[in-house]
Design goal:
This protein has three helices and five strands. It has a five-stranded antiparallel sheet with strand order 1-2-3-5-4, covered by helices on one side. A hairpin with a 3-residue loop joins strand 1 and strand 2. The mean pLDDT is 95. By secondary structure, the chain is an alpha+beta fold.
Length: 139
């Protein structure tokens, strides 16, 4: 599988690359949600975060960590929303792990990350306890 992001990494498709190292690359989103909207990807293709090896995940986060203040400064943003869509049902459109760094500005009309899921579930304490126990047992 060769995603559009892999084609960018290979230089087959032009992109506004703003940072690159051995394992990651950052470039401006071609369809930005805000000025400076940047994507950070691992150079190798991994469809979901669950597929990314630990060492590459460390590199990926290091690049995100490096780029957030740089992007904010470059476009004089008040803040950023930093997010991964992990799987098609979560809104992931390209099956290649990518982190969105979306600059945010006062009055931009955007909402918090909590607005992404629509209606919130009503969960009882025992349901929350069961979910927490199940997650903890799988770590």
């Amino acid at each position: 599988m060769s995603t559009i992001f892999s084609q960018i990494v290979e230089g087959e498709i032009p992109a506004r690359i703003v940072y690159e190292d051995e394992t990651t690359v950052a470039f401006l989103d071609a369809n930005p949600l805000a000025p400076g909207h940047t994507l950070v990807i691992p150079k190798d293709e991994y469809e979901r975060l669950n597929d990314v090896p630990d060492d590459i995940a460390t590199d990926l986060y290091a690049t995100v960590h490096r780029m957030v203040p740089v992007v904010e400064d470059a476009v004089d943003a008040d803040a950023t929303t930093v997010a991964f869509n992990n799987g098609e049902e979560a809104g992931q459109e390209v099956p290649h792990v990518h982190c969105h760094i979306v600059p945010r500005f006062e009055g931009d009309g955007g909402g918090p990350i909590h607005a992404v899921a629509g209606d919130r579930p009503s969960l009882a304490d025992d349901e929350l306890d069961d979910i927490a126990d199940d997650i903890e047992s799988r770590v």
